[in-house]
Design a protein that fits this description.
With 140 residues, this protein is mainly α. It has one domain. It is 82% helix and 0% strand. The relative contact order is 0.16.
């Protein structure tokens, strides 16, 4: 059983794994390895789904942790957090649509969506780790 206080680290790990899988999936499609691309992207989608469930559970039970940093890091943190949060809300319907289009072999439309979805999803995954580092691991 994972303790509630351990979930932020678990969630950061899930975000990091998602970023790696997205990057591998992109590399695979660039090499025309479509089955590996599909496997990586479906794994990224699955890991992101587990992340979302864990994130929501954590915040329902632990509430909000406030950023304690002072000085120059404070506006940096909030700039990252705000863009992360807005884009995280956008990535859910984008990822659902992109995965759906890929699974149903609607490749031209899938590619158009993926050109937007991938960088947004990757940004959200990486900044999720950065937010965790700034909030829970680094002190300023």
């Amino acid at each position: 059983m994972i303790a509630t206080e351990d979930l932020p680290a678990v969630n950061a790990t899930l975000n990091g794994v998602t970023a790696v899988l997205l990057s591998l999936g992109y590399a695979m499609i660039r090499r025309r390895r479509t089955l590996l691309h599909k496997a990586c992207m479906l794994a990224a989608f699955g890991v992101s789904t587990v992340f979302l469930a864990s994130y929501l559970w954590y915040h329902a039970h632990a509430g909000v942790k406030h950023f304690a940093g002072r000085g120059w890091i404070r506006p940096v943190y909030f700039a990252i957090l705000i863009t992360h949060t807005v884009l995280a809300a956008a990535v859910v319907p984008l990822a659902l649509t992109t995965v759906y289009l890929g699974l149903w072999s609607r490749h031209p439309t899938h590619r158009r969506y993926a050109r937007w979805t991938l960088p947004i999803w990757l940004y959200v995954s990486v900044t999720g780790v950065v937010v965790w580092l700034l909030l829970f691991r680094l002190s300023f």
